[in-house]
Amino acid sequence: MTATIETPSVAREQSQTSGLFDTGVGPDDGTAVSSSKPVWKHSTVVAGVPWKNPVGTASGTFNLEACGRFYDVSQLGAVSTKGVSPIPWEGNPTPRTAESPSGMVNAVGLQNPGVDHYLVDELPKLKALGATVVTNVAGHSDDDYAQVVEKLADSPADMLEINVSCPNVSHGGLSVGSDPLVLGHLIERLRKLTTKPMVVKLTPNVTDIVPIARAAVDAGADALSLINTLIGIRIDVETGNPIIANVTGGVSGPAIKPIAVAMVWKTRQALPDIPIIGIGGISSAEDALEHLYAGANAVEVGAAALLDPVAPLRIAEDLDALLDARPELAEKLRNGQTWR
Amino acid sequence: MTATIETPSVAREQSQTSGLFDTGVGPDDGTAVSSSKPVWKHSTVVAGVPWKNPVGTASGTFNLEACGRFYDVSQLGAVSTKGVSPIPWEGNPTPRTAESPSGMVNAVGLQNPGVDHYLVDELPKLKALGATVVTNVAGHSDDDYAQVVEKLADSPADMLEINVSCPNVSHGGLSVGSDPLVLGHLIERLRKLTTKPMVVKLTPNVTDIVPIARAAVDAGADALSLINTLIGIRIDVETGNPIIANVTGGVSGPAIKPIAVAMVWKTRQALPDIPIIGIGGISSAEDALEHLYAGANAVEVGAAALLDPVAPLRIAEDLDALLDARPELAEKLRNGQTWR
Amino acid sequence: METENSQKAFRSTRTALADSGSGSGSVSTEGASDCARSRFLPSRRSATVCSVEMLCDGVYSLELSDRYMAHHAHAGQFANLYLHDTARILPRPLGIASVKGDVVRFIFAVVGEGTRQLSQARIGDSIDVLGPLGNGFSLKKEGRYLLVGGGLGVPPLVRAAQEIRQLEGALSTAVFGYRAEHFADNIVGEFSDSTLSIDESEGNVINLLNKWVEDAESTGPGVRAAMDDVEILSCGPHPMMMAVAQWAKERGLRAQLSLEARMGCGFGTCVACVTPTRDGLKKVCIDGPVFTVEQLGW
Amino acid sequence: METENSQKAFRSTRTALADSGSGSGSVSTEGASDCARSRFLPSRRSATVCSVEMLCDGVYSLELSDRYMAHHAHAGQFANLYLHDTARILPRPLGIASVKGDVVRFIFAVVGEGTRQLSQARIGDSIDVLGPLGNGFSLKKEGRYLLVGGGLGVPPLVRAAQEIRQLEGALSTAVFGYRAEHFADNIVGEFSDSTLSIDESEGNVINLLNKWVEDAESTGPGVRAAMDDVEILSCGPHPMMMAVAQWAKERGLRAQLSLEARMGCGFGTCVACVTPTRDGLKKVCIDGPVFTVEQLGW
Ligand SMILES: Cc1cc2nc3c(=O)[nH]c(=O)nc-3n(C[C@H](O)[C@H](O)[C@H](O)COP(=O)(O)OP(=O)(O)OC[C@H]3O[C@@H](n4cnc5c(N)ncnc54)[C@H](O)[C@@H]3O)c2cc1C
Ligand SMILES: Cc1cc2nc3c(=O)[nH]c(=O)nc-3n(C[C@H](O)[C@H](O)[C@H](O)COP(=O)(O)OP(=O)(O)OC[C@H]3O[C@@H](n4cnc5c(N)ncnc54)[C@H](O)[C@@H]3O)c2cc1C
Ligand SMILES: Cc1cc2nc3c(=O)[nH]c(=O)nc-3n(C[C@H](O)[C@H](O)[C@H](O)COP(=O)(O)O)c2cc1C
Ligand SMILES: Cc1cc2nc3c(=O)[nH]c(=O)nc-3n(C[C@H](O)[C@H](O)[C@H](O)COP(=O)(O)O)c2cc1C
Ligand code: FES
Ligand code: FES
Fold first, then answer.
1. Exposure check for chain D: N or C terminus, fewer CB within 10 A?
2. Which of residues 7-66 of A touch C (CB under 8 A)?
3. C4-133 has which CATH code?
4. Is A239 exposed, middle or buried (0-12, 13-18, 19+ CB in 10 A)?
């Protein structure tokens, strides 16, 4: 499958106007990376949506204004954008992040400018670049989700990704993603509001992911993405207090990879046919392969994309090469099938 | 509190007879570490049992025969021994272990020589050395646990630690530790069989640890220890198959520290009075402090003790020094209270 | 034999400068010069250590060779440095302290394990970097700059002095406060027109600023006119910068302040580093780290 | 400033040799010699790199200075090497290949990221070690040893040759099979009484063993008696060792085999490394790595 070639003009413009001052940083000395006419040998398809390659970005770790300066974001399998809520959210107090061994803990609190801004700003820009867009949806109540999904129904987004890991008022502050009944109810409601491929993004903070996954699928999810972050706390041993202002945060990064792969595996064993996007601890093409061999159709790169903006594209390139030596896996992915 | 000084004669003997051949490895050139008359400034007490210091070993990562060659194991706050079952268990096929970022995945499958062997071998040897012993109890059914606890009731073990994370036949293959009702029922039954301080060791693979912790306490647990390992899978990207023969294993090591600290924190918030032993990702005294500041009364060191046999003692020593600068915390621990 | 090398987390890839135009995978790339419209900023890459020097107890100077950064770094910008210890994944943001040819200098204190590891680097080692990042100080061709720095806030001001030295009609006075040893006086003295410094045993930078005004006033009339030209660039601990902002406002002086924040990415993606401004929350890493006192509403 | 140095996982502590008698914490310790009854084995400690050499493509020799290990290492024992990259926590077990003074030599192949990192060590670097570990080969004062090694199974046999050389009446013949380059012939040749080797393009060690017997028989009578003296020490890939065990049994020869296993600790605690034997599951790391053919029941 040949990728379309797009001039990243929007991203270009942005990088020059994004700051308060002229940073003097610009691609003006002929030293920066150039890529043109990339040809992806190994594509995939997720819930009927073609991805140029099996590697996307994970929500919250991609931002066009920031990342578009570093590479042609349309070359990714897909980009999952930051969770959008019905109105702008301020997020949590700072500090919002801390390091943990082979991982990071974050509690950004879904700060975002709201769905209306997203619809006039990031989404059209991404589509103009030719990106495959997965729009991540956040909400603090069932009504929140419904409002956002309704507004996105006629948008150019390629897929919706319902993040059911946020603490939810309709569900007494627990995440909707931790109760099969509550989740099924929400997804049924959202299903009626859109015909777009709907991915439900699951939380790993559950006793058994299988009944949750099944409830989402039974209620009309076209695909599942997993996992979101694990709940964690880092403590400052000088003060005895949590480093993150919100106390708890979400653990992501390499540390969580074996946990994520186990969840993909278990979900795949229970639900042989549902498309799965594997997420968690992917920072190399080999990590992506672990998810794919566990039964994922595609992957999303999270924390690693914060540590090197081009990481998702690099992983896509490396994976394209590794799949040459794995024709059986590549063939399955191309046809929307999976290894297990 | 002054620690008792014991000649580790049993461990000495063992190290010379443990193998099939004479290894030629012995403390015979005056170069090995010697410790005598150690004085611990900061002790703690867990469910009424005095610990010389707040650092113990975690079950499965301590073995007298192996570790006693390296240091005086009686100097630890406590040693939690490998889970014992009513009869010897063979464990899982190999490979049983794999590396993961800042962690390891293991599926030993609780191979152990059974409670009868434990009662005549490891336990008396440990008590002869003067160690404070936490006997970890494993079972595949409620009856298994009951049998072991019954046999231990009159033993010299200082505390029992009931590991409710193993897959359990009485509970359809799920772990007893994931269902408050089932757990409560088991602990009630065990409570009647022993007056020894009973620690219930919780699994992190649950949606919410609080109702489980509460069920254990309501049923008669004297203390809680948390966490056990998180379920994980590593895949060999050359073959596409899991590295570990058992497919899934338990993730331990630094990677899980923030997750463990969050569980200690949440449990402490919900249950202000129950003694808690914090476990998970501790490989330095600072890591131990994170658990203590989150509300633990003491800690156990797991994976780190596999990577350096003396790690628990080193952490105990370093912590003793760090507590000098934290008199308020030290005072609380000494009195069986906690920071939060 | 099975490969567990899936853990080669965050290896640095295509170094934009070192091998622009050669992707490690299948994406065919062309020489950058061929295709001006599709060029991008260099991403994370490895830079070579040229020198490591202890300036005083726990404070180090580290020089890295990175052509791109050296040629694009403005005063007040910073770079992400990454560690070889792959368990420590987050960037260590450090201000760019000076530039010479293709070499960029950083000055940092060892405050934790990451900076400790950086201090152990040896000549010839490679260190992953990303940058320059952020919006630096805004400098006019003419004017008199007071560079007010505290502790490890001095590095970006050293770079500011270096840039001001290159401007025609501008002058800089470094006003540095240290905890103890005056480790950067020599370094900034190479570029600044004058240097005042103080340590905790003697007082603070506000004392120095007051003294500077007194001295200026004692030189006679015309001071008021001269003061209109004065702009403060400041970087240091939060309380110091609050005091500097106050001091500047009282005298009607412009002031640009460089903030610190805990960062997840350093280039505007993760939204970890926000600070309140009069226009709402702004990202310190990309909207800052330099903000004017007015923007901050301090 | 807050300290996140709680992540200094697995720093090596009190080096038994380097600073015996000084604990890092509050436990008062005394000089080892004072108190013979309370001495222990040295635990994980750091050793200094004396040399790193590439023997052939992807195969390296690494020398570490560690007095204790050098003075206690028996043929067939191994050591745990640990990486500076604290994300990779598990030990890399390597056979002890030879000893000279206080220096221990390892020979290893780069098969993954850990061995790649070890191959990048430079002279003067420190590497954490634990050992010597395990039960090595059992050697009698007299006899004729056939050291049958395949690929990266040769290092412990080099050490065996070195020890046998020190025995009065014993002789050793190295019988090595390589994938391609005969990287250890020179090294073992320093110690062995004779060396036969072969690579995959030519055949395998069984071919060599058969040839050795033919040659021995062709030297005339008395061979049967001489064969009674022969003992095989072997280390290499599993299928090779199975074949060697079979070959030895057919000829009634004793054979000791050194096994490999995925290890969690390397010193007998974690029970990860078990192998079935006639006495049930045994730990390769502490009951082995060397077992007799009879023990294994092969
Ligand atoms: C824009 C900017 C410029 C900076 N310039 C300099 C400089 O020129 N010289 C200098 O000495 N220091 C500077 N700092 C602070 C420097 O980044 C920290 O001291 C360093 O990251 C500490 O790392 P560590 O691993 O030693 O500490 P640890 O506490 O072990 O680090 C753990 C985590 O916390 C983060 N962290 C710790 N302290 C800080 C801090 N003060 N600010 C931001 N993140 C922190 C680390 O980056 C890391 O992610 C700057 C910070 C920022 C945000
Ligand atoms: C007792 C013993 C002695 C050994 N002696 C030698 C020797 O002298 N020379 C030599 O080249 N190799 C030897 N090996 C094999 C060597 O330990 C591995 O090649 C090495 O651990 C691979 O590490 P890595 O990080 O490069 O590979 P990775 O595959 O990235 O390692 C990941 C994990 O798997 C483990 N692992 C991978 N391969 C093996 C293996 N074959 N055996 C055991 N664990 C493995 C690693 O230790 C690590 O924990 C020995 C193994 C054992 C058990
Ligand atoms: C800073 C940050 C912000 C995130 N924001 C979102 C979000 O808005 N919506 C969402 O579904 N997941 C969010 N996530 C979770 C990631 O998409 C991903 O599921 C998780 O980080 C695990 O992947 P990783 O290990 O590759 O980071 C966020 C993660 C990080 C680190
Ligand atoms: C090899 C191994 C064996 C273990 N065996 C047991 C066991 O028998 N019983 C038990 O309750 N926990 C067992 N555990 C779990 C540890 O006691 C501990 O809860 C877990 O490893 C988390 O701590 P850590 O991160 O410090 O390793 C085992 C862990 C490991 C690594
Ligand atoms: S640090 Fe990520 S947005 Fe600023
Ligand atoms: S490797 Fe741990 S017991 Fe052998």
1. N
2. 7-9, 15, 18-21, 23-27, 29-41, 60-63, 65-66
3. 2.40.30.10
4. exposed
Cα–Cα distance measured from residue C198 to residue B256, given in angstroms and rounded to the nearest whole number: 46
Condensed to tens digits (0 to 9), the pLDDT of residues A191-236 reads 999 999 999 999 999 999 999 999 999 999 999 999 999 999 999 9
Q: Where are the domains of chain D?
A: 4-133, 144-258
In ligand 2, which atom is closest to the CA atom of D259? 1
Alpha helices in B18-134 (DSSP H): 64-67, 115-120, 122-129
pLDDT tens, residue by residue, D167-200:
988 999 999 999 999 999 999 999 999 999 999 9
The CATH number of domain D144-258 is 3.40.190.10: no
A261 CA from centroid of ligand 4 (Å): 20
Ligand 1: nearest atom to the Cα of C114: 25
Q: Band of the pLDDT at C222, cuts 50, 70, 90? A: low
Any idea which ligand is nearest the CA of C264? 5
Cβ–Cβ contact D8 with A under 8 A: no
Cα dihedral: A17, A20, A25, A27 (round 10): 0
Identify the residue whose tokens are 């009927």.
A48
Question: Which two tokens mark A282?
Answer: 């992917």
Classify residue A206 by its DSSP letter. S
CA distance A255 to chain D (A): 9
How many alpha carbons lie under 13 Å from residue A41 in its C-beta half-sphere?
A: 18
> Choosing among D3, D4, D116, which should be mutated to test the A contact, i.e. which has the most A CBs within 10 A?
D4
Find the mean pLDDT for residues D250-278.
97
Helix/strand/coil percentages in chain A, nearest 5? 35, 20, 45
Q: Is D280's pLDDT higher than 80?
A: yes
Please list the rounded mean pLDDT of every run of 10 residues in chain B (340 residues).
36 30 36 56 98 98 97 97 96 97 96 97 98 97 97 98 85 86 97 98 96 98 98 98 97 98 98 98 98 98 98 98 98 97
pLDDT, mean of residues D216-236 = 80
Between strands D169-178 and D194-199, the pairing is parallel
CB contact under 8 A, B101 and A281: yes
> To which H or E segment does residue A329 belong?
helix A327-334
